[in-house]
Amino acid sequence: MARRQPPLRIIPLGGLDGIGKNMTALELGDDMIVIDAGIMFPDDQQPGIDLILPDYTYVLEHEDRLRGIIITHGHEDHTGAIPYLLTDLDRTPPIYGSRLTLGFVEGKLEEHRINRPRLNEVKDGSHIQLGCFNVDFFATTHSIPGALGLFVRTPQGSILHTGDFKLDQTPIDGQTPNYQAICRFASKGVDLLMSDSTNATRPGFTPSEAAVGAALRHIIKNAPGRVFVASFSSHIHRLQQVCDASVAVGRKVVVTGRSMVTNTKIARELGYLHVADDDVVDAYEIDELPDEKVVVLCTGSQGEPLSALARMATGDHKSLSITADDTVIISATPVPGNEKSVQGIINALSKIGCAIYDKSSTLVHVSGHGSQEELRLMLAMTRPRNFMPVHGEAVHLRAHAGLAREMGLAPENVFVVDNGETLEMRGGQVRVGQPVESGIIFVDGSQVGEAQPSVMRERTRLAKDGVVSCVVVLDKRSSRVESVQVSGRGVSFADDCDLVSEARDVVRNSVNGALGSAKAGPETVRKAVRNSLSNFLWSQTHTRPVVIPTVLGA
Question: Which candidate in 369, 391, 396, 400 is catalytic?
């Protein structure tokens, strides 16, 4: 019977080409669900871009089939695209997630002024039916409370999606992975396992989050002045440990940074972050406390230039600054692409002379993702017939695929796919399907869409070589050049009077030559200015600034 029905299609739209913008659609006949809708932050090759979204065109084109959106946990790389997706959809589907996850989602929707959709809380042991999809949820451990995995049953077979996970035996909130549920699903038969690959190249086990607590308390207790702790604002377990250590040694907690303030407020209101009101003080009240009685929770663990830590390191923060007597703890791992930015912050702090602790020197951070032995255990518990690694760069996906083959899965049952490539399942059998449209969408200020390659190239040139403007005034009576003005921004030769004078002569001669042509028009003159000035600057400076010609009197 299943053979005559349409196949179950597994459609990854993001998350398989880097750490971020996770999004997967499952489709069977007239029913579709979406698992996660995240963002990724831009790198140095995407100047001016604020956020990167997965291209969810396929979901928009088939939104009549969309029965619901399931969010595995509250991190930005799984929730950040939701406001943009909901804006583009004509109707609002129900959204499912844990209590904290939905709290973060609701905060994002309010920020984007989107009317609250149907938010439905699920938890460990919950079951929902969305069209032909029967979904069971099970608890996992990650670097945020309320992380869930999914077991999805359909007429064509079953899928177990781990979400982001590690097998932490001593989690901060006491919520261990639901091993019984995982084994129960395995006994029913897992036709396809989709498993987190972030640490697939790291041997052994990932240390427990509890291991960080002792190091944090030791540093906070013995610091002579104020302590600044930079972490992900959604890493509630880490923030809880900082608060616990601070209170235990008699320090007050200050929270700064927009997302840190927002997320700690939500987590406290929902009962996930426990710290008494008396132990939290406003940043503007910090001067009333002795330095040795203060701990500051702040954003900036990824070197973001506008984060609280970055602004404090450069003296630009409106209420806080860091001195040589202070201590800074960077309690996070740089996301790939952010390493140089983080090092820049560390260098700025080093010039101040404060004490700096990060994971390279002290156990102030552990990953929220399982390492190789935990990934092997997940494969052993679930005993999947087919395997698809997810959540990682190409090197992580292939390393995870190698672990699966080591565990006995046949190579033809292990599928390493890219965004837009699909799998099809019929009767529990999996094969490669037809690809769908995929890619990335840029958020550039208020603009959301595909950025033209020429725009990215020009922004890169502007950042690298600067810009030169050239204003040419023509004498209408003689059809000759009356005057030339050359000025530059972001160029090293702007104050070189001899070079600028020579550049003016080059442009004058080139334009006068162009004006001698019978076909000379405004665009011909502008082209002559652009080409002559660009070639001259390259010959003299070996740079190619963007040349902006303006012709008056043409």
Answer: 369
**Segments of 192-292 assigned E as strands:** 192-196, 227-230, 252-256, 280-281
Tell me, yes or no, if 498 is annotated catalytic.
no
Catalytic residue among 36, 55, 164, 196: 196
With CA atoms as reference, report the closest residue to 141 among 87, 63, 71, 206.
206
Active-site residue, 369 included: yes
Mean pLDDT, rounded, for 205-212: 94
By the 8 A CB rule, do 223 and 294 touch? no
Whether 259 contacts 229, CB under 8 Å: no
Residue 239 has pLDDT above 70, yes or no: yes
Rounded Cα distance between 506 and 536, Å, is 8
* C-alpha angle 105-110-116 in degrees, rounded to nearest 5: 70
- Non-local (6+) Cβ contacts of 360 within 8 A are none
Residue 283: what pLDDT? 82
Give Cα separations from 108 to 42, 57, 139, 158, 290 (angstroms).
Answer: 19, 22, 24, 32, 36
Residue 448 has pLDDT above 70, yes or no: no
Q: Please give the single-letter amino acid code of residue 43.
A: D
> Is 148 a residue whose pLDDT tops 80?
yes
Instruction: Look at strands 227-230 and 95-97 and give their pairing.
Output: unpaired
Comparing CA positions, the residue from 21, 17, 73 lying closest to residue 368 is 73
H-assigned helices in 277-337: 308-313
pLDDT band at 269 (very low <50, low <70, confident <90, very high): very high
What is the reported pLDDT for 374? 98
